[in-house]
Amino acid sequence: MNTKFAASVLSALLYAQGLLGFAGVATVLLRDRAHASELNMGNDMPSGPSMLVVR
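Above: the chain's sequence. Below: its structure in token form.
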């Protein structure tokens, strides 16, 4: 009975570690994606004065 409990605890710990690893990878990928979109938005903006004239 004691070995079954130890096996279930070890299984739960390994499962939790896998979830934390997946969350870490997802965090890094999403952060890189957000950073890349910020750079693209900065490149889309014109560098000179605007041609729009309001009268």
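The CA atoms of residues 48 and 54 lie 17 Å apart.
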